[in-house]
Design brief:
It is elongated, with a radius of gyration of 25 Å. It is built from seven helices and five strands. The N and C termini lie far apart (51 Å). It is an alpha/beta fold.
């Protein structure tokens, strides 16, 4: 974990927050800040824009946990959470909400840095997987809309499938656009001008 990273500690208990802060500063981190009031926390996070977030709930009740988990779902940052007690449901909810490292009864000064390293590694791995899945989904959608656009060109301009494909690709290059976006524009125009119906299936 780079010492240049900014780290935000969310902890209503100032003594426990000091333990986390000391562990981080002894590991060489100087950009560490503490927030002890959880009200308006999403706005505070947006203002400080930390690279990593450490949450210490000590003995959380359901309302506290739900408040933090709602925040975790909208903040795309590596998050490490320390709690003194937990159960399977609580842990599952935290992981589902995007918490990268969930540590029960493990708040010790010497453990803070390796736990944050693990949180960052898990967050980065999840982000890569999410990006790969999004790329795959987009590629499948592009293929479907490109097939629809080619069918429109074949039907309206008398082109062969290869000619329609080359026309779409050439237009995309000329416009410095993605081929899928050019195909979407063509399909949208056909729907408007020609009454073509797009069902989302192959033509």
């Amino acid at each position: 974990m780079s010492p240049d990273l900014s780290i935000l500690i969310l902890d209503e208990n100032r003594i426990r927050a000091a333990i986390i802060e000391t562990g981080l500063r002894e590991a060489g981190h100087t950009r560490v800040s503490i927030v002890s009031d959880m009200n308006g926390i999403v706005r505070r996070i947006a203002e400080t824009a930390p690279d990593v977030i450490v949450i210490d709930l000590e003995n959380p009740n359901r309302d506290q946990l739900e408040h933090v988990l709602q925040m975790s779902r909208v903040v795309e940052r590596p998050i490490a959470m320390f709690v003194d007690r937990s159960d399977t449901e609580m842990m599952a909810s935290a992981i589902e909400a995007g918490v990268s490292a969930y540590v029960v009864d493990g708040l010790r000064q010497d453990r803070v840095k390796p736990i944050l390293d693990m949180a960052i590694a898990r967050f980065n791995a999840y982000s890569r997987l999410k990006s790969e899945l999004e790329d795959t989904r987009r590629a499948l959608e592009d293929r479907k809309v490109i097939d629809r656009a080619k069918a429109i060109l074949i039907r309206t301009r008398g082109l062969t499938e290869d000619e329609a494909h080359h026309l779409l690709r050439r237009t995309a290059m000329q416009q410095s656009a993605r081929m899928g976006d050019v195909a979407r524009a063509l399909v949208a125009s056909a729907e408007l001008l020609l009454g073509e119906k797009s069902t989302g299936d192959e033509p």
